[in-house]
Amino acid sequence: MMNVILDYLLSLPSDIIFADISFTIMLIATVYFLTKYAKWKWLWSWITSTDHKKIGIMYLFVSFLFFIRAGIEALLIRMQLAFPNNEFWVFQGERFNQLTSTHGTVMIFLVATPLLIGLMNVIVPLQIGARDVAFPFMNSLSLWLFISGGILINASFVAGGSPNAGWTTYAPLASKEFTPGPGNSYYPIGLQVAGLGTIMGGINFIVTIIKMRAPGMRFMRMPLSTWSMFITSILIVYAFSALAVALLLLTFERLFGTVILSASEGNPLIWQHLFWIFGHPEVYIIALPAFGIFSDVISVFSKRKLFGYPSMVFAIILIGFLGFMVWVHHMFTVGLNTNITIFFALTTMLIAVPTGIKIFNWLFTMRGGRIRFDTPMLYALGFIFTFVIGGVTGVMLGTVPADYQYHDSYFVVAHLHYVIIGATIFGVFSGVYYWWPKMFGKKLNETLGKWNFWTFGIGFHITFFPMHVMGLMGMPRRVFTYPEGDGLGFLNFISTCGAFMMGIGVLFFMINIYITTRYTKKRVLNDPWFSRGRTLEWTIPSPPPAYNFARLPEVKSREPLWDAYERGNKNINFIGEYEDIHLPNSTSLPFFMGIGFLIASFGFVFEIWPVALSGMLIVFLMMSIRSFQQKNGIHLPKEKVRVQDMRGED
Amino acid sequence: MTFRYALFVIVIISASGCSNIAVLNPKGSEAQSELNLLYLSLALMSIVLLVVFTLFTRFLMKYRELPGQENDFPTQVNGNKKLEITWVVIPIAILTILAVPTFATTYQLDNKTEIVREPLEINVTAQQYKWKFHYPEHDITLENEVKLPVDRPVVFTLHSKDVIHSFWLPQLGGKKDVLPNQVNKLTLTPLETGVYDGKCAELCGANHALMTFDTTVIEQEAFNQWTRVADIQED
Ligand code: HEM
Ligand SMILES: [Cu+2]
Ligand SMILES: [Cu+2]
Description:
heterodimer; A: Cytochrome C Oxidase, Chain A; B: about 240 residues; alpha+beta; Immunoglobulin-like; 5 helices; binds protoporphyrin IX containing FE
């Protein structure tokens, strides 16, 4: 028996053996440390938590792990492409396609989106003066569905093979006829599970923002982060529903042999339309929250009011709306009717206008201010520089005849990284440096922060700027090799060097977290940013108590805290008497539902129906337990709240 | 920042002189009109970049927090109607300048198939991972290579036997997808003799990167000569 297993293991390709070994080591190390420091209980308290701040932190943590994984894949891609006709390790042909496909899929669905949802969880209730989100149980369920779907996509390459038809997974290549293995079943099923969680998250935040704002927090007084996350939540509900339909079609196509997306009886373009009806709004789902974060950061670190607040809000809404009307610009070369093409070219160009409004408003926010260069602000400035270049190439891509040349070439790879890394990843770094003190009570080290920014930022431009030229040289995307002698080799090599520099940048970030957590003794007060914070999250202790606000904050303007500072006060006023505070129970049901979905999904991917059925049974069992549960939360007595609050004030 | 911007401009300008950048070195009339739009959009967008980066560097240098200002409260303004209208109107103007020729060229390129006179017809069949070129007029079939006469429009009729591919000849013109459920047409007019790289631009499976073909553009005389010989050989 042991021999059989050993033989099987030795027959695997070396990269999978390597991954298996490193995974096993990590697992053992985790178990060892959890046991050694007696942290199992502590871990369970996080897993079952319904506190939006803890859920947000778990979102950030897990997405960061996925970011490392997909980042390593990016480095492998760059190694394979470093030289012409290169043969690096096993990553040619089929295996290379798996690399790019999981790199793209993980980065979009399991990194960019959930990183922002993590920040959303931490920040939105604090910024609107709420004690939690509207549906804490559902919030925890969102998290576990995301983790479950994420595990599925991430485990695929050691369990049967990864998706290999690109992150867009076009039919008919993605159908069973052309890719028979389980790889392309992981994609629709894993994303379906994660996407379900995302839709629930969207609904949760719409309700939270509409119903749970503190008295006086009118819509037009909400901070820009909250505004953008509100619009994003609406986009999520519409866009991810379209994705759910598309994924369902692909799942049926693969598992039950439907022919809707096939070339013979169906039409593969149905997939492309549905996918991009989701796909383009997705770009804004991951960009808008970043815009919001930058608005807050630029305003705080310039010590200036946000320039043109109403037009900023209007621009976000307009971008969100137009975002649903541009999807065909991903399909200009498909051979659609010219009138259709022209219409979508027009809407694509139009979307540049509200984006321009935002850029200029940010610039003029800085004018007349006192600009400081702390790390969150550095990332915001890096964003302006990078995103303008990405936006400009976006307009160039909207120029249809020229797009016939750019489409599906490295020009697009350059463009998409300029906007996604420039907005989302820079935005998350900026937000994490900005709110880290709020989440953990300590400020991240500034020196390491600057090293992190400059290596990552400069590395970024070295990696991706040459790709514009590579595209114009005729290098298509998703190729594992290219011929010698076109000058392509030189640019590719530069690009690979840049990628490693970005990797070093991420290392600085990890070192920063370690050093700060381990060695920084100084704990910050309510407002760590030179006492010039503006919004409600800086009026409460860092980290905030479970209930966030002991009493309700008094909101009479857009920037209550800044106004209080200007009047010479140390904080805003809180209104009302202390009351008993209601808090949601912690619960393990979402965790087990996640496990149920995980088991069911493996069953579906490998078409082992008893496994699929038992997974679903676990899910339904948990749902019925939840239905009959009589847990109405816990009440914190007002005396206790008062004592805690008094302690927090000095 | 200004330095990086300067670098950006220098790279683009020197790039345009580089003969090995296929798209910037067109040998066909379609590729030429696409390139004209590339330059137009790049020029217009350079204005945008210039304005933004100038304001950006200026504001950053002028409004830095100086030692001693840490506890200030700079004056707060809400916005400025006139400025905000400016940066709505000017971008719309720029986009209009770009949109008009864009739309005109799109109509022109997309409908070329119907307008061109006496084109050379070639049926292209894509299949994992090769290209078949069939000349119905002469009943010649080539694999992974195609011969074209110079100065004569060619209409490629594109069809796929399996998954979606994309037909791309960067120096002669932009790409067109090759679908299994629909026939697409693409017109290209080579203006210079030579050998040009053709490739598949849509991920189509393991050897997508190797799905390339050579395009040889020769004088019309030589082309006629070749069709006669090749036709006889095929029979
Ligand atoms: C460490 C930094 C990164 C490097 C060096 C990198 C590199 C690359 C490269 C070389 C490709 C092209 C692969 C190909 O077409 O053959 C690619 C594709 C892609 N990347 Fe990245 N990337 C990085 C970070 C990111 C991030 C942060 C995101 C999004 C959050 C992202 C999203 C994508 C997507 C969506 C694709 C398209 C995948 C596909 O063609 O299916 N990348 N990346
Ligand atoms: Cu799009
Ligand atoms: Cu291909």
